[in-house]
Every structure is written in structure tokens, then in C-alpha cells.
Amino acid sequence: MGKNDILFERAQKTIPGGVNSPVRAFRQVGGTPRFVTRAKGPYFWDADDKRYIDLIMSWGPMIAGHAHPEVVAAVQKAAETSFSYGAPTEGEIELAERICQLVPSIEQVRMVSSGTEATMSALRLARGYTGRDLIIKFEGCYHGHADSLLVKAGSGLLTFADSTQNAPSSGGVPQDLVKHTLVLPYNDVAALEEVFKKQGNEVAAVIIEPIAGNMNLIQPSKIFLATLRDLTTQYGSVLIYDEVMTGFRVALGGAQSLQGIVPDLTCLGKVMGGGMPMAAFGGKKAIMSKLAPLGNVYQAGTLSGNPVAVAAGLKNLEIISREGFFEYLTGQTTKLMTGLKQAADESGVPFSVDSVGGMFGFYFTDKVPTSFEEVTKTNIEAFKKFFHLMLDQGVYLAPSAYEAGFTSIAHDNAIVDDIIRAARTSFKSL
Ligand SMILES: *Cc1c(COP(=O)(O)O)cnc(C)c1O
């Protein structure tokens, strides 16, 4: 038995399932999770001291590579002056100013400690601002684990627009709560139009992953986004871009900068904190000023704007703002995806790929999917085999076919070649 197995057994005694977040448990792919001891650049090492090329990068945050010396130094410096004060600091202003500058739709921003807090607070704010209860989300999008977002639509297309047919997608979520959430299929313009025609005046907010990364990687169509922006404007509903994953990851200005859409509110997280527990939500001043202490929408946090996290975030944002960062990152990710596709083709494996900036998706099917339903129809069995073949060769992919993958600036040509070589071997033995 290896050290990972020993640790996993031990972990399960005091931690439910042995992990502090479910996807880490390898439930979809089977096998033993790797317990990480250290990481540097594009690599991490497990408890058996086996080295892996990391293609999840903490699910996005480590875009500058693990343990970037400048970020480490910034964190060390901040830590020397205590970890938290519960009183404001100048660093928070600097970070807020930086965010507003990089994402112009954000006029004001409030810092929190996790993406879940960001989306939960943004929804409360949208409801407080509009005086309406109903929210719309899209099937396959993940917005953290707040109660009102852990909802799945009833089966059958007709029930999509009927929230009374909703079911909580988690235990512990009251049926009464999910009736305020409509779940619509991603990229379905007609469903969106129909719902707004019927109930537009009741919709407080529409929340969307503007490039979905929690059902593998799924891109929205131009017409879908344009319709979304038009309808929310027309009916006075708040459009919330959940860019917790895509913010500072697909481009410096996030997905909205690539799509030319100006959302009312934006949620940020992951890259924003460079690996520290840090997230934010922000947007139009008219909406943000409804927040306490100015307005009557309550929102707070003991560790919000934590000075050590702020130091990491500021340095991380400085690094990714440097000349050529995103051009290089995007180029490396494209190179990696082209290589994987080529390797699959050589072995005649039905396979397709997509990527935006430093975020990618690959699918065991001929055509890139456009909805959650299509993702569920890809060959999950082939994915599971591929995952373990890659893992054995020291390449760590997301342990689920429903997650996007992530690169960093440390994924240079040699790393990309190593991954493609491992993939070629894996495809051959599929
Ligand atoms: C990760 C993620 C969240 C939740 O963030 P946490 O920090 O895990 O709470 C919310 N929305 C999106 C789009 C995410 O990818």
C-alpha cells in the first residue's frame, strides 16, 4: 500500500469521505486521491513523492504557476504584520481599484472569502435591489453551494420553465426555497424568451457562467448572450455574470471583455486570490450602494478583505497584467489542445477540444457540446480510462468529465510536449 492509500484511509476516519470538497475524492474516476505534499510551477508532488504535471491548478487560481516567488514574497511580507485586523486597510482599496480598472463594468466591489459567498451575496443584493424573488440559472452551471442555487429542473423540456417542478439537487434544501429558482437549458434562446414573456416582471436576476466551466467547458452562442442582455435590460432584471472561474483566467478582463457584454453584477474568485481564500462581487454603483452599511441589504465577513489574501491577490493580478501574459497562456493552451486532438485522431478515438485563454475542455465525442445534456452524452467510460492512463504517466487531469481544465504561465513547451506524449500513449491503449 502506498502512502496515498494510507493517508486516504486515515483521512476517512475524521473527515467525511476523506476530503474537504467532494470532487477531490475521485468518486467519478475511482481510485485513491493523491495527497499533495508540495508544488512548484506546473508540478505537484504526492505523498509517495511522485511528480505530476498539474492541469487543474487548484481549479484555476494558480495561473502564475505554483509557489510563484513574487507571490510567496508578498504573502510572507504581509504575514509579518499579522494575518487579520477586522478593520480596513489600504491594500483593500488598492485591490478594489485594480479590479474596477481591469473589469470596467465593476464600479464598486465588495470582498468576501469564497466564490459561494460572492454569488450568494450577489443574489441577495439583486433581490433587495429589485424587490423581486425569482432567479434564473442554467442547467450545468455551478455557482457555489448556496441553498437557492442547488436546484435541478424537473425532467422533460416542458418543466424547465416551471419552478414548481424543481427538485433540490442536495439534501437539506427546502422544496419551498427552490420554487424561487428557474432552471433553463444553456444556450436555449427560445426557453429564455418564453420565460421572460410570461414572468419577466418577477425576475430579480439571471445568473450565468458566461463560459461554463463546471460542466466541462461550454461556450455560449452570441445570440444567446445578446438575448440575455436584452431581456434582462428590458424587464429590469439584474444580469449577474458569475466569473468566479473565468475572471482573470480566460482574459485579463474576463469573459465579458471577450463577449462585449456589460453585466450589472460580476462575481469573482479563484484567480483573484492567487490561491488564498478570496473572492468578490461588484458592479453598478446604483446596485452596490444598496449594500450595508449604505443600504438595507446585509452582507458581512470577519475575514473579508483579509490582508494576507489581499497581498497575494494584488501580486497575482500584477503578474497577469504584464505584457504578453495572456497571449502566451492562450497560445500554450491552444497548442496543448491541438496536440491532444491530433493524438486522438492518430488512434481513431472520437474526441474534440475547446479552450479560451488558460481554460480548456476536451470531450470524448466528435463534436464540441453546447449544453449540459450534450455533455452527459459524451463517452464517460473512455474519459475514466484516459484519466487513469494519464495519472499513471504523471499527468493530473480533473478527476471528472464534467470539469474544465486549467493551465498556467509555467506550462511551457516542454511541459506541453510531455502531456501530449502521455496522451498519445493513453489514446493508443484506450
Ligand atoms: C468555483 C466556483 C464557484 C464557487 O466558488 P468557491 O470558492 O468554491 O465557493 C462559484 N461559481 C463558479 C463559476 C465557480 O467556478
Automatic annotation (TrEMBL):
CDD domains xrefs: OAT_like
Biological process according to GO: protoporphyrinogen IX biosynthetic process
One Gene Ontology MF term: pyridoxal phosphate binding
InterPro entries linked: 4pyrrol_synth_GluAld_NH2Trfase, Aminotrans_3, Aminotrans_3_PPA_site, PyrdxlP-dep_Trfase, PyrdxlP-dep_Trfase_major, PyrdxlP-dep_Trfase_small
Recorded catalytic activity of this chain's protein: (S)-4-amino-5-oxopentanoate = 5-aminolevulinate
Involved pathway(s): Porphyrin-containing compound metabolism; protoporphyrin-IX biosynthesis; 5-aminolevulinate from L-glutamyl-tRNA(Glu): step 2/2
UniProt-listed Enzyme Commission number(s): 5.4.3.8
Entry GO terms, CC: cytoplasm
Keyword Isomerase: yes
Residues bearing the modification N6-(pyridoxal phosphate)lysine: K270
Pfam families: Aminotran_3
Cofactor: pyridoxal 5'-phosphate
Location relative to the cell: Cytoplasm
UniProtKB keywords: Cytoplasm, Isomerase, Porphyrin biosynthesis, Pyridoxal phosphate
Subunit structure: Homodimer.
Family: Belongs to the class-III pyridoxal-phosphate-dependent aminotransferase family. HemL subfamily.
Annotated protein name in UniProt: Glutamate-1-semialdehyde 2,1-aminomutase
Organism: Polynucleobacter antarcticus
